[in-house]
Amino acid sequence: MNVIKFKTSLKCGGCVNAIRPYLNKIKGIQSWEVDLNTPDKVLTVTTDSDLTLELQNTIVSSFKDAGYKAELI
Question: pTM for the whole thing?
Answer without folding.
Answer: 0.91
